[in-house]
Amino acid sequence: MWFGIIDIIAFVVIIVGVIIEHRNAVVEEKKYQGKHSNGASF
Predict the structure, then answer these.
(1) Maximum C-alpha span of the chain
(2) Where are the transmembrane segments (predicted)?
């Protein structure tokens, strides 16, 4: 049972980390496009 709980906690931590990294990447992308207004915005 403990092993399952640890797995769930690790899984949640990984997912949260991925979401944060993705949000940071999106913010950086928007800053970059703001500086060099190319056109295609996401």
Answers:
(1) 53
(2) 6-26
| Global pTM exceeds 0.90 | no
CA distance 33 to 7: 39
Structure tokens at 2: 């403990």
The rounded Cα 41 to chain-centroid distance in angstroms is 18
In tens digits, what is the pLDDT along the chain, a chain of 42 residues? 667 999 999 999 999 999 999 998 888 877 776 665 555 544
CA–CA gap between residue 28 and residue 21 (Å, rounded): 10
